[in-house]
Amino acid sequence: MIKKKYLILGAGPAGLTLANMLLDRGEEDFLLLEKEDVAGGLCRTEYVGSNPVDIGGGHILDVRSQRVCDYMFRFLPKDKWNIFDRDSKIRFQDQFMGSPFESHIWQLPVEDQVRYIKSIAIAGCNLGTPKPEKFVDWIRWKLGDEIAENYMLPYNRKMFTSNLDSLGTYWLEKLPDVSFEDTLMSCLEHRFYGKHPGHARFYYPDREGYGDAFILMQKRLGDKFLGGVRVTSLDVENRVVNEEFTADHIISTIPWTDIEEYKGLEDEYISMIGRLKYSGIQVDYHKQPLPFETKAHWIYYPQECYAFHRILVLFNFSPRSEGYWTETNLERVDMTGSPDIKSGPGADLSYKNIYAYPHNTLDKPEIMAKLLPRMEKSRITGLGRWGEWQHYNSDVVMEKAMDLAQKL
Q1: Closest CA to 119 of 153, 92, 148, 91
Q2: Which one, 63, 106, 285, 329, has least CB within 10 Å?
């Protein structure tokens, strides 16, 4: 039995940051386990020739947390990154309009603008009706039926799940906050009004992929990183993993649902874990150029005729590269070809992620409010996107890992 003070499960951004922060504080009695041979998790980068492909669908370094940025620059220096002002588009009615939709209605024909504005004006949030608990109802309450039916609902069905009624509303800080007044002002002045939740400005490496920074974080750990170890069993009471590793404290950044066997955990908590939902994606890289010119960094596709839900335009944020990635929900990858853009078959690289997005289901807050304290009782801490079952971006999980290192 290999015994450590700290055992970290999963070498994505959360696990890698925690491990390196422990080293910074002089702590060396730990081990980081990762099921893949190399680190990075959803932020890992593969290559086709000299072209980086981020296997998690494209991840970037938000500028908001200077603390996180400075930490990343320790491994990949700042002069190795480019900084961008976000340019995202929506493929809609045979044109490319800006995102978020409600701030770019002015780019549509005037008669469509009137129709969408009238719909927003009588949305529940502008009439004073109570905020709904279900995501589908909230979309209509916030943005009106027209945006709901033509953009938000089809896009989110493609990205997350066809059963949107299962999602709650407690996670909506991920979405842009645009009021009815903001929409009116954007139509009058033909510019963005509202508040972006994140990624308004971001860094991306000049010559590498985003995942290369995390490989450098892995290399610093030396033999404290152990790849090729999938966690299949967890003895909760004794803090034993795979009957091979044990620790005074376990920090898990991996999906609770991916652990096949729990020992010493009450049935009610095992049942809760079984109720946690998620969706996977397939990322397809195509070296050939898109059949149109664009300066956008990524483009959203709500139309059902496209299997994928978004495109990452690689050369617009990795200037020395070529081609594009598509991101497709695993439930949709077998759909026959999209009308004008190659995806799936014929890709120069395809990668399946079983775990991409944790679902913010109606019962998830209650589940995690019980599960995490139960695990803490046995000195097992959930951290990051999967440990906390939250749709966190990489910069957020890194900052959470920094805070946890201080606490530990």
Answers
A1: 148
A2: 63
| Mean pLDDT across 298-324 | 93
Q: What is the pLDDT of residues 377-392, one digit of tens each?
A: 999 999 999 999 999 9
Q: How far is the C-alpha of 219 from the C-alpha of 342, rounded, in Å?
A: 36
| Beta strands 30-34 and 225-227, pairing class | parallel
Structure confidence by residue, pLDDT tens digits, 132-171: 999 999 999 999 999 999 999 999 999 999 899 999 988 8
Residues pairing with 225 in the sheet: 32
Task: Provide the 3-class DSSP secondary structure of residue 52.
Answer: strand
Within 10 A of 158 (CB to CB), how many other CB atoms are there? 24
Spell out the residues 6+ positions from residue 17 whose beta carbon is closer than 8 angstroms to its own. 71, 217, 397, 398, 401, 402, 405
The confidence band for 174, taking pLDDT boundaries of 50, 70 and 90, is: low
pTM to 2 decimal places: 0.94
How sure is the predictor about 5, in pLDDT bands with cuts at 50, 70 and 90? very high
Task: Identify whether the C-beta of residue 15 lies closer than 8 Å to the C-beta of residue 252.
Answer: no
Instruction: Tell me the CA end-to-end span of the chain in Å, nearest whole number.
Output: 23
Strands (E), 287-348: 298-300, 310-312, 324-329
For residue 100, cis peptide bond before it (omega within 30 degrees of 0):
yes
Q: 226: which residues sit within 8 A by CB, 6+ positions away?
A: 31, 32, 33, 34
Please say whether the beta carbons of 96 and 302 come within 8 A: no
What is the rounded distance in angstroms from the CA atom of residue 106 to the CA atom of residue 325?
A: 29
The CATH superfamily label for domain 2-46+206-277+362-407 reads FAD/NAD(P)-binding domain (3.50.50.60)
What does the pLDDT read at residue 341?
A: 80
